[in-house]
Specification:
Layout (H helix, E strand, L loop, with lengths): L7 E5 L2 H10 L1 E8 L2 E8 L2 E7 L4 H13 L5 E10 L9 E9 L22 E2 L2 H14 L5 E8 L7 H11 L3 E3 L2 H11 L3 E9 L5 H26 L1
Parallel strand pairs: 1-4, 1-5, 5-10, 6-8, 8-9
Antiparallel strand pairs: 2-3, 3-4, 5-9, 6-7, 6-10
Helix pairs in contact: 1-6, 2-5, 3-6
The protein binds adenine.
Length: 236
Amino acid sequence: MEDYMKRIGVIGAMEPEIRKLQESMQDVRIVHKASTEFYEGTLDGHPVVAARSGIGKVNAAVCAQIMIDLFQVDLLLNTGIAGSLDPQINIGDIVLSTDLVHHDMNAVGFGYARGQIPQMEAFSFAADPALIELAEQVCRRVNPDIQVFRGRILSGDQFVSDQAVKDDIKKTFGGLAVEMEGASIAQTAFINGVPFLGIRAISDKADGSAVMDYPAFEAKAAMHSSNLTMGLIGQL
Ligand code: ADE
């Protein structure tokens, strides 16, 4: 009997983050749902569904739930770019999520910690440990010239381009990188019991230089994340 092959859902918010994977897929069928194109096919024989969700947490969560309900994915990967929260992490480097938190969730007035979703037990949404391990090994092989880190990723409906905002997020939550979708995909995966991993390459430092750096380094960073995602799929 043939081994069961996992069906892998991959979400990127923007075109440069998902295009290479979609172009590399075989036997593609495009399914339209919720204003999104879902590419269903294979990558080197592995069943894959890849979609550009659009930017922000709502778009990403809707996309993740469709991946689970309509395409029955067995695991979810989020590939893309992020701002660095740590001086050791350079533009182009990769951060693998250990867990993700919504940095813009705030019910402090009711006694909750910042980031805590009221009436939910979980504070952060953990990535799958085996996926983190495997992704780190693959990254050293496919992106040998950059560093790879594991740590918390913060998500919010906000492009962080101000040193004071960055400092506040770092002081409150710790973490290595900030972006605009991951926690919502991780949360959707969590409440559906689907394993998840966030893969982000750094495009900027999430400070006053971010608006200049982001367009300059977007393509290169997106390529690192995409290389790793495709390499990882080959190992699953
Ligand atoms: N994605 C890439 N850079 C980012 C930043 N500085 N803030 C939020 N999302 C990002």
